[in-house]
Amino acid sequence: MLRGGCSFQMEYDTAVVGAGPVGSMSAIHAQKRGDALILGVPDARCRCAGLVSTSGLQAIGAYDKKFILNTVRGARIFSPGGVEVEVDAKGEKACVIDRVLFDKTLFERALDAGCENVSETVTNVKYDVVTSSGKTFSAGRRILATGADYSLHKTCGLTYPKRFLTSAQYELEVECDRDFVELYFNVPGFFSWLVPVEDSVRVGLATWSEPVKHLNEFIKFLDKQGRLKSDRIFSKSYGPIPIYEPSVKTQCGECVSVGDAAGQVKATSGGGIVFGCLAAMHACEGDYERLWRRELGGELRLHLLIHNFLNRLSPEKTDRLFSIVAEHKRDLESSGDMDYASKTVLGFLRDPGFVSKFLANAPGLLLDIIR
Fold first, then answer.
1. What's residue 359's pLDDT?
2. Are residues 236 and 179 in the same domain?
3. 293 and 178 in one domain?
4. CATH for 151
5. What are the φ/ψ torsions at residue 101 (nearest 5 degrees)?
6. Domain for residue 231, yes or no?
């Protein structure tokens, strides 16, 4: 209906702000309860490594070969001093996806489910959803799936993470085993990665500051190894990665946040697609915050604990830890899980050999855990 002769209001049961995978998943499940509106359009740029666990894609109902560019069965992980841990699951463990096509596919599923779409910027969600052009939409439940854009949170009483890593990634031609990703713990706060696509490799990293400087140094390292096939850069991408904070408020009345907007990101890997989409399935529930925390909160806390632990270790202690893990890599191969850190930790704790060696050879590590 017209309001004041200059703007109009339409009523929906749910309005979702953000059309990334988590926003689309939120809209798909919201549409099952009533009329849903999704505001925004999918990002046309790839902003992440695009490595998602096969089990995670299956869990959120989004395993589709049309956007899967490659599958990997394991990882080669290197400590600061060059200690290598090769983990080989002997079968498909993760998928390298075309992130732009992935986002578009889930968005189209939302539209096919009956969701309506308005491709405008949202300026306020406190009571109604207001767009930059003056349109106003009434919605009983308002879901923020805005990624690492937190400009709307204060308008509706939500809080957001305060710590961020910054990522940089180039797509290059690099000599690489297509069945394995490579991780190098060679930058402050996180790691560098090689993720094989089809005829190219996503070479990137995340760190606290100056990611481009660190990335260029990493590329020089690869070049010295004779692995850089050409100087051509197919694409560049940059972006923030929020660090999970258990105290973040993700529900205030009928406003909720989900995905990166809620900081639902694994601190060990920076991945947020799987847990964000799982949380999105609860986004229309009255007790949303309790439900998603019951399902995912413990796992996110454990990822954070591991992240903080690794960041407290000196390079020498990290090398010692990797040496122990390398001797017991079968625990990772049998129990390791990209999403559920508890499965990985339990795999190690059930191995008396690992536990005894951990305690005997690296007693100082325990002090880092409980600091």
1. 85
2. yes
3. no
4. 3.50.50.60
5. -70, -35
6. yes
Same-domain check for residues 83 and 105: no
Q: Is the residue at 149 inside a domain?
A: yes
The count of structural domains within the chain is 3
Quote the pLDDT of residue 4.
35
Looking at 242, 264, 286, the residue that finishes a domain is: 242
- Reported confidence tier of residue 226, pLDDT bands at 50, 70, 90: very high
Grouping H, G, I as helix, E, B as strand and the rest as coil, residue 232 is: strand
Please tell me whether residues 141 and 228 are part of one structural domain: no
Burial 46-55 (b: 16+ CB within 10 A, else e): bbbbbbbbbb
Residues 353 and 229 in one domain: no
Would you say residue 66 lies in a domain?
Answer: no
Mean pLDDT for the stretch of residues 152-180: 96
**6 has a pLDDT exceeding 70:** no
Question: Is pLDDT larger for residue 7 or for residue 112?
Answer: 112
Judged against a pLDDT cut of 90, whether residue 304 lies above it is answered with: yes
Is 146 in the same domain as 24? yes
**Containing domain of residue 83, as a range?**
73-97+164-242
**DSSP letter for each residue of 123-149:** EE-SSSEEETTS-EEEEEEEEE--TT-
What are the DSSP calls for 155-179, one per residue? GGT------EEEEEEEEEEE---TT
Q: Is 56 part of a structural domain of the chain?
A: no
For the chain, the average pLDDT equals 93
Q: Is 204 in contact with 168 (CB distance < 8 Å)?
A: yes
Structure tokens at 7: 């703007």
Cα dist from 249 to 257, 262, 297, 334, whole Å:
8, 8, 13, 36
Pick from 126, 164, 123, 166: which is nearest to 146 by CA? Answer: 123
User: Residue 316 pLDDT more than 50?
Assistant: yes
pTM for the model stands at 0.94
Tell me the pLDDT tens digit for each residue of 143-152.
999 999 999 9
pLDDT at residue 180 tops 80: yes
User: ∠ CA 333-344-300 to the nearest 5 degrees?
Assistant: 140
